[in-house]
Design goal:
heterodimer; A: alpha/beta; 8-stranded mixed beta sheet; 3-stranded antiparallel beta sheet; 11 strands; globular; B: mainly alpha; two-stranded antiparallel sheet
Chain lengths: 437, 479
């Protein structure tokens, strides 16, 4: 069906907003949350004494969740598949070397959507590994079931505890003297991946994270709140105590004065600004181990577009943000691993609204000095009708837990990955170089 | 008590294999338990306080006494009746908001941010001033149940109509009427893309969410095939956009409809039904036992919190017996002893702000300044981007304590623009405590009361700090 004029206006208005909105743009919003897991400790007094300065001997993990179901088939395109072009007459991206906007070849079979161009150097220099046909075993095609499965580190939602995989990773590597800033996430609400942490703190921005009382009353109210929130017998008391500990930690830095290194320019989007603040925390050596960020806007049922449109703008933000972070970190990338995931991919066949409906497998990315990059890792299931699943979707041939599990084991020194993934033993793929013993 | 990782793993090993992490997580969970039952009813006043907390956006001075005077049934029935009369102050403030006086299409003359600002102001004003508080709570509930992200496309311009004609109009009506109104709402047709759902390659977005989130629930017994069939039934349900026609109302476009036979949840829908195909789907969904159960479970959780599960089956049965009558489902819940005895529910940011303003008996314009605080706490109205609405679980919100404290300080010191309260009557520590917390402390030796008394002793003429501590206290975060 041809789109009507109003529809295009609608699309245009959305497109304009992705640039304009600094917060919560499009479906899924972009959040950046701060959380800190106190794990199996009880005394808040312990927490207030942060261990600063020491390098942890493992990477800092940056976990980015693309909310809404990102279309892996149009991000990292299997352009050798005739079926791709047959099923997406309007949405497909032209093959490499075609006229106009076209794919950027990766390995003779897969190509980057042109909006991912800022990530090509990382791929070519071996710091960016791409995985394809990845996902969970959740077949509901529900955003909420599929997100819950992955954020809880499960095969599918309901098959294990409701705590998050990052929370369990932190619990299983807990030390007595850990910082209240082991894990951060920015935004108003906390993601499920951090659920199960007894307390967690969300922040909208580092520089706003201060008690908004007159300077001469800061110490007094900090103390009084500490009394009111002491003991930690319930979730609110814990959260209050944790918030005060984080306030103490952050006193030592001045985020407003922070400038990225190497001329890096972050997008003004929530993702870009979230990564900028992640970089600030990494450099401040406050004991950060995991940062969890979200990027929404991927639920492209309608007016998804091929090389212009909502999907392109989202990819552009993702690529620019990651490229800026890599440039900023420079040599520091040797101790940082970024993992990008989404809850599911999208149907091979486009729908009548120039969009795509919920599908199954999608792509993942691992970026960092420890990644064995420059390669698209895929047990490619194929796109012909007999190769797709019963709904017409790309089959999952790589369990997302194999990717996360390898990263945790090889770069985060977690020897308990079956605990993190509730009995599942991740099968290493070889996408990372293990840290030396 | 301090438990090391080794203890945890040891405990896990006892459980063995896959149960291990469950054991470990449960252990953590046990430590991070729900709060001790704060402010448990020890006297009649406490019971009435809880009743007011659960059925309103928090007590205004005098509300608890009024509930007591009416008696439980009298109070609950007055809430359920929810007439159309409104507080003159509220009416005056609402009349200044243009978006509610204009056709949806006309509101495009206003900047989008202004439309959104007015929508947000209206919601807060109604929660703070509204006379019929149970309806306001239900509006908040259904707004999230049928969540529409106002930043998607032109949704903001259509949301006012949705809020008035769908959510507010049917908040205490029957669920089938509400579901039907929502299915015809241009804001919903836009948000979940049904306006682009046409014969040939149907768009599954609305079909999935109406079953998963609006009616049956994800475990409600539908399949991917049902999603695709329901999508076919809804083809052609779109928004009027033809030249010189009434714009932005519901329209069925027969040219876009799939006229074939469909099979939905075991029912055959014969071909050629046109617009009626989706009417039949709405009928199937509205009368389905899974819908009764799903809606009942959400309502029970909203009013009884952690104890809601005990009431779900009974409430689902009421749904089926009464054709989804919302009042009939609510009445037993509101009169139940479990409403009084259940563990407290964490206030979401919107609850927190509305209850603060009500406790202070503050006057507010519901404008940008106070809305900014709501955004910092993580709940900017009409801006949850996913179709499931703002989270209800406690763990989603405990991360944002600092913005709660900062709001408490700003509002107590009169620094929130467009919002003021009269602090001259708040002089005595006990009175401040009772006014803001809704009751006297449950026991002597209240840490909060001691802190409040200390502030008043140090600043006898200034109750700002005392009010701040009350609103920022752990006690005030629950209801």
């Amino acid at each position: 069906m041809p789109l009507k004029r109003d529809d295009w206006m609608t699309c245009g208005s959305d497109a304009g907003q992705t640039k304009r909105l600094s917060r919560r743009d499009l479906l899924g919003g972009s959040g950046f949350h701060l959380a800190s897991w106190t794990g199996l400790r009880s005394a808040l007094a312990d927490i207030a004494i942060a261990k600063n300065g020491a390098e942890p001997g493992h990477d800092i993990l940056v976990s980015i969740f693309l909310r809404g179901g990102a279309d892996g088939l149009n991000a990292v395109v299997p352009y050798f598949e005739d079926a791709y072009y047959r099923n997406r007459p309007n949405l497909s991206v032209p093959p490499p070397k075609a006229g106009g906007a076209h794919l950027l070849d990766l390995d003779g079979k897969f190509g980057f959507h042109p909006a991912l161009a800022p990530l090509l150097p990382a791929f070519r220099e071996g710091e960016l590994a791409i995985l394809h046909a990845c996902g969970s075993q959740d077949g509901t095609r529900s955003h909420f079931e599929a997100m819950a499965a992955i954020e809880r580190g499960l095969a599918y939602e309901g098959s294990g505890p409701t705590s998050g995989w990052i929370a369990r990773h932190l619990a299983s590597t807990q030390k007595e003297s850990d910082s209240p800033l082991r894990a951060v996430a920015f935004g108003g609400t906390l993601p499920d991946s951090l659920r199960g942490a007894r307390t967690a703190v969300a922040l909208e921005s580092l520089s706003d994270f201060r008690l908004d009382v007159p300077e001469e009353q800061q110490a007094h109210f900090h103390h009084v709140l500490g009394e009111l929130y002491a003991g930690g017998k319930d979730e609110v008391l814990h959260a209050g105590g944790e918030t005060l500990a984080v306030l103490d930690s952050l006193k030592k830095i001045d985020p407003k004065q922070y400038r990225p290194a190497n001329g890096a320019k972050y997008p003004t989007s929530d993702l870009g600004q979230g990564l900028l603040q992640t970089s600030c925390l990494i450099r401040a050596n406050l004991g950060l181990e995991v940062a969890a960020l979200d990027r929404g806007g991927w639920d492209t049922h309608y007016a998804q577009g091929s090389t212009v449109g909502i999907f392109t703008l989202s990819l552009d933000d993702l690529a620019q943000s990651l490229a800026a972070f890599r440039q900023d970190m420079g040599q520091e990338m040797r101790r940082v691993t970024v993992v990008v995931m989404t809850e599911f991919g999208r149907r091979l066949a486009e729908n009548a609204g120039l969009g795509t409906d919920h599908g199954r497998a999608s792509f993942m990315m691992v970026l960092g000095g420890g990644a064995k990059g420059g390669h698209v890792y895929a047990k490619w299931p194929g796109l012909e009708p007999h190769q797709l699943d019963e709904t017409g979707d790309l089959r999952v041939t790589t369990d997302y837990r194999d990717v996360l599990g390898e990263v945790l084991q090889s770069r985060m020194r977690n020897d308990h990955t079956p605990d993190v993934f509730v009995g599942y033993v991740p099968k290493p793929i070889g996408i990372t170089t293990p840290l030396k013993a | 008590m301090s438990i090391s990782r080794r203890d945890c793993l040891k405990l896990g090993a006892l459980g063995g294999g896959a149960a291990m992490l469950g054991g470990c997580a449960n252990l953590a969970g046990r430590i991070a338990q729900r709060p001790e039952r704060l402010a448990l009813p020890t006297a009649g006043a406490e019971e009435n306080l809880r009743l007011v907390h659960r059925t309103t956006f928090g007590p205004r001075p005098g509300d608890v006494a009024r509930a007591k005077a009416l008696g439980k049934e009298g109070y609950v029935d007055s809430l359920l009746k929810a007439g159309e009369d409104e507080e003159p102050r509220l009416q005056f403030l609402l009349n200044r908001l243009d978006v509610f006086q204009m056709d949806a299409y006309e509101t495009q003359e206003l900047p989008e941010n202004e439309v959104l600002r007015q929508l947000q102001a209206a919601a807060l004003l109604r929660a703070v001033y509204g006379r019929h508080q149970l309806r306001e709570r239900m509006v908040d509930f259904w707004t999230n149940h049928f969540n529409i992200y106002s930043r998607k496309g032109l949704s903001a311009f259509r949301k006012a109509t949705d809020e008035t004609k769908v959510v507010r109009q049917h908040a205490l009506d029957t669920f089938p009427n509400l579901l039907k109104a929502s299915a015809h709402s241009p804001a919903m047709l836009m948000f979940l893309d049904n306006q682009g759902n046409t014969s040939g390659h149907p768009n599954e977005n609305y079909a999935r969410e109406i079953m998963e989130l609006h009616s049956l629930g994800v475990k409600g017994g539908y399949t991917q095939k049902d999603v695709q069939e329901v999508a076919r039934c809804f083809t052609g349900w779109t928004i009027e956009r033809r030249f010189l026609r009434h714009r932005w109302t519901f329209r069925f476009d027969p040219d876009l409809h799939d006229n074939g036979t469909k099979r939905v949840l075991g029912h055959t829908i014969p071909g050629g039904g046109g617009e009626k195909d989706a009417d039949i789907v709405l009928q199937i969904l509205s009368t389905h036992p899974s819908t009764a159960h799903f809606i009942a479970s959400k309502l029970c959780a909203a009013f009884l919190g952690a104890d809601g599960g005990k009431w779900t089956d009974q409430t689902a049965q009421t749904y089926l017996n009464t054709g989804g009558d919302i009042r009939a489902m609510l009445r037993p819940l509101l009169l139940s002893k479990d409403l009084i005895d259940s563990p407290p529910i964490l206030k979401r940011p919107f609850d927190l702000i509305a209850s603060s303003l009500r406790a202070l008996d503050a006057d507010t314009d519901g404008g940008k300044d106070v809305q900014n605080h709501l955004e910092k706490m993580g709940e900017p109205l009409y801006q949850w981007p996913m179709p499931d609405g703002y989270p209800t679980k406690t763990s989603a919100w405990t991360g944002s304590m600092l913005p709660r404290w900062n709001f408490a300080h700003q509002v107590a010191s009169g620094a929130v623009g467009g919002t003021r309260y009269d602090s001259t009557s708040l002089k005595e520590p006990e009175l401040i405590y009772e006014t803001l917390l809704g009751s006297r402390p449950a026991s002597s030796g209240s840490l909060l009361l001691d802190s409040v008394a200390r502030e008043i002793k140090n600043h006898p003429e200034d109750s700002t700090s005392a009010c701040f501590l009350c609103l920022a206290s752990p006690e005030f975060q629950w209801r």
